[in-house]
Amino acid sequence: MRRFSIIAYPWDLADEGFESVLDRLGGEVGATGLTLWGAARPIQRVRVRAVEPRVVRCGGGALFLPSDRHYVDTPCKPVVCSLVHRMAPLSKMVEAARVRGLDVRVVLSAGLTGEMARRYPEVACENVFGARSQYGVCVRNPAVQSCLAGMVADLSADLEPDGVIVTDVTTGWHEVYSADVEGIDSLGASERALLSLCFCAACREAAQAEGVDVRAARESAKAVLQAALERSGGTTAGVLLESAPPVAGFVKWQAGRVGRLLDRLTDGCPGKLYLDGGNANPLLEGSVNIPESSGVIRIHEYRDNAGDMKVHGRGDELRIPAAVTAGGGGAHLVKALPEALESGFVGFDIDDYGLLSDAGLTSVKQAFRIGRRSGGDGG
What pTM did the predictor assign? Predict the structure, then answer.
């Protein structure tokens, strides 16, 4: 069965009246599912529709009140988002969505959840030059993994969602993608990914214990970055890793640790577990092996030609940015969704409600209608 869903931050539903929004999504728009953020990245945005407040700004964090019993094995506790106080509880939104026939999933940012890096600097990511991140925590750190497992268990017990989505699992020193960092204009995408790669103490010690030559990897990474900083241009991820074998060995180890995290979260998730490729590090993305037997379902990021995208396993889904629905892009969405269905994708998440104009919602409605006619709706 196909799934046609809208991703939403809870405050976007709350500020418009969540019951009326759900009426519109499940009725007029024709969605079959709702994906709610349960633990969000820091955010600063101007809303597309005329909803007050027009500017939303917060440090991200848990969009629920954590239950202490799920976090006894970790010194890291979820940092609650500053906007929680102005919203109805997630449980009420989930209940209202189900009354309207929508299935519900929750999504968690694994590496960029709110203020955790500032609250717990000892678990923050650290780049090869020793700079700690203000935004990203290391998902290979055992304390972070225990906290993430606690959040999955916490939300599963409280909301009983149809699935849990984890994203940002390969992020590192995320500042490399910020306009505030100067001096890196000469770096290509692969070199930025290398600068983002986490070399925190927990990563270094664990990798060294498993036979990775971490010192050689650091020296090799520094040499590659120094050469790139002194000249413009870049290379592909494959060429970079081939030219720096110690870095390739460290990347392979990090990718394996992501697989272990997913195994742990799967064990504690009574419903389906999904992996969203959001903010994926290009050096790690191709190395994360998720066997179909694991039960983890991939959610891919939309590319310009959905028909060229490859499905990796049964149940793969596609996340489509709201920008695709804007202006002439609406017609593009209506054309792209059937192409994605033919490629084997079975679920679609529009990302996200707060960035959709009324015209964009009309485009989504048309695309969902065509998708349902192409092979049935789903839940």
Answer: 0.92
